[in-house]
Every structure is written in structure tokens, then in C-alpha cells.
Amino acid sequence: MANFSKPMVPRFAVEVYQNVNLPEGGREVNAIVTVTSTGGGTTGETPLPSLSPGSVPLPGYDPDAAVVIMVDCSGSMDYPPAKMRNARDATAAAVDALRDGVAFAVVAGTHQAREAYPGDGRLAIADATTRAQAKEALRKLSAGGGTAIGTWLRLADRLLSSSDAAIRHGILLTDGRNEHEEPDALRASLDACAGRFTCDARGVGTDWEVKEVTGIASALLGSADIVADPAGLAADFTRMMEAVMGKEVADVALRLWTPQGAEVLFVKQVAPTVEELTDRRRESGPRAGDYPTGAWGDESRDYHVCVRVPYAHVGQEMLAARASLVLPTPDGSSPHVLAQGLIRAVWTDDLEASTAINPQVAHYTGQAELAQAIQQGLDLRKSGDVDGATAKLGRAVQLANRSGHEDTAKLLAKVVDVVDAANGTVRLKSKVTEEAEMTLETRSTKTVRVKK
Length: 452
Prior knowledge:
This protein is 31% helix and 31% strand. With 452 residues, it is an alpha+beta fold. The chain is globular and about 75 Å long. The protein contains eleven helices and 21 strands. The strands form four sheets. Strands 5, 6, 7, 8, 9, 10 and 11 form a seven-stranded mixed sheet that branches. Strands 4-1-3-17-13-14 form a six-stranded antiparallel sheet, with helices on one face. It has a six-stranded mixed sheet with strand order 2-19-18-12-16-15.
């Protein structure tokens, strides 16, 4: 069993990277807002920038957690039989990684959802006894039935809602398409669960639908990935659970306040993955809106914010937006402000200053285009549009080469023959494995940090 002590109270910091200069009449301000949480229980793989002097510790936050693991037990999990066995072993490994005192449950998912452990609508509290009981219950799981993922999510929501834990998280594994409920039913379940818990989603094998799995993770602010070989499930589940155990703060929002006459055009997370947040805005006061960011451990994320400001003359300057990290209080009073940064606009007649593009903004604009080019290219390839697919995937190769995204470049090379990476000259491969194509699509939104 992994030895996890209770995480320490984290500290948050906000840093803003932008070119503040605009030409006379310029109205669009772009900035990268880097949010960093440090001082908690775990450290991510990405080196974190140092805390700024204005960082604020969170007072008296209790990071208790509740986790529900949803395991696909549909009939296809028995083909081959090793798939179901690996799923049981992976879930057992995740249970072993639970910190003592964490509430948890296991759901067996088919065309309906069933509580595999502990049952009776309850959550168990992790200790040596309940871990052993859960693993005994896992041995009894068998494959049979269809797939209706929305029912799994709604049962997980009911179970998690019985806990007052700050961190509420799901882990979902599927090996097939959501064939036993309508797409609208899954969307309704995701809408009902959004903001109530976060969820990591995994597809095992190559018979599942990438857009379904990534859509689940996106809606519930979790991660998505492919585990093509079922033998890799245990290691992946352990990593996921260790990451959950490292979360210390839930329900953090990025609050953007803009002055009179200014408006937010878009907000998107751009690292570690590209995630569109614009349509998730919730009004939080006069000229202020909150964008959900989910739960945080020791980690750093980047957000691209674009604001349209009023017309102004050379020599004028203004605060275009104030970016704050906020945490709701249990009693509904004013939220904790964890950290904040300022996005500015200064109008100048210096052409060189006003046309310079901030390196962080340029980098992540390219990363977002890279993700879009891959997804569009793969869709065109599936539809038989060879020329369109070649153009889009060639552009993706060019962007991956330019940004130093070596992992994506390697995945692209399994789908296209690269003639000239710098110019994006490629040829579609005549034969591409499902694993290669699905891996590229699933991981297309993962980004690399800008080199500072």
C-alpha cells in the first residue's frame, strides 16, 4: 500500500505574461495567466516556478477526499478474458493507493450501474480492513451486459454526494462505445455531474470511442488517455489514484473582472492540456465571471485570456482585467482570494513595441492550433478526404516541430510519412493501426510548457 500522509496546506500564486503595448485604436489584449499551487503533499513532473511575493496561503483548509472507481463490466470486457482480469487488478492497485481515511466505493458498470463495494448507497472509509474487503469484492466481478456510461456517472454522483469531503473524484474505465443509451442521455448525465465531482476517464483496448472518453474527462475537468494494452492498467490506475491523493483544494475558480467597456472574448486552459473554458463562465458579480478549474495539488497550469478593451489614444493605459484564484466558502460568504494578477493595456505609437508578440502567448497559440489541426486532420482522414487530411496533419507536424513537442511528433509519424517537418510536407500512410490513430487523437490536446 502506498504511504500517503495528509497533504499540507498549499499556497497559490498567479503570474501574468503579456505584451501590454497596443497600437492606437488596438482593442484586443492577450495574456497567459500561470497559476501555481505549491507546498502541499505531492510534486508534479513539471518544475514549478517560484512563488511570487504576493502569494497567499489558504487558511485552515481540510483536504479530505472521496473517490468512486467505475469499472466497465460489459460483455466485451471478456474478449480477451485477460481484459477483465487486468481491470480487476488495476482497481485493486488503485484501492491500495488510497490514503487512510479516504471515503471510497467501486461501481460495476454495464447497461446499468451496480454498487460492487461496499453497497447500500454507502462509501467505505479506507483502512487495512476495507481495502481487503474491496479487493475480495473485486474478485467476484465478471463481464456481461451492455454499456450505458451515464448511469455509472449518476450512481457515482449519488455516492459522492453522501460525503462532505472537499475532494470528490471519479475514475472511469471503459472498453467500448456507449451503445445502450442515447448520446443526449450521456450529455444530460455529464451536465448533472459537472461541478459536483471531477473524473479521469480511460479507454482500454481500441474498441471505444475517443470523443466519448475525452468528452467525459473534459466535462468533468479530469484527464483522458488510452491504455491500448490491458496489462498497463494497474500502473496507470496507481498513477491516477496517487494524483488524486495529492489534491488538496477543490472547486477553485479563475475569476476575471473587467472594467466598464471591456469584455472577455475567451478563456482556455493551454497547459498541461488544451481545454476550452469560455462557455463555462458563471457570473459572480458586476463585470466579473468565474471559470472552473477543478481540484489542485502541487502543480502549475497556464490559461490564455483574451480581453477586448475600449478604443483609446496613444499615451493612455488601463487595467484590462484582474485575474484572481478564488475558493467558495462553506457558508456562502465572500470567497477566499488565493492569489491574483493584473492584465494591462498601454497604447503606444512605437510600432516595434506594439507588434511584438509575447513568447508565451505565441507558444500557446501554436499549441492550441496544433491540437485543432490533429483533430481536424484525423476527422478528414476518416471521411476519405486525403488532400484535406494531408494538409491539416502536415500543419500539425510543422507546429509540433516548431514548438519542440517531441511526443506529439512521434505520434504523428505513426500516421504520416514526414518528408519535411519544418515545412509540414507529409504523406498519409496507407496503413495505420487503430492504436496509433486513437493514441494521437486522445493525446492531441496535451501540450508542452513554453521554454522560459
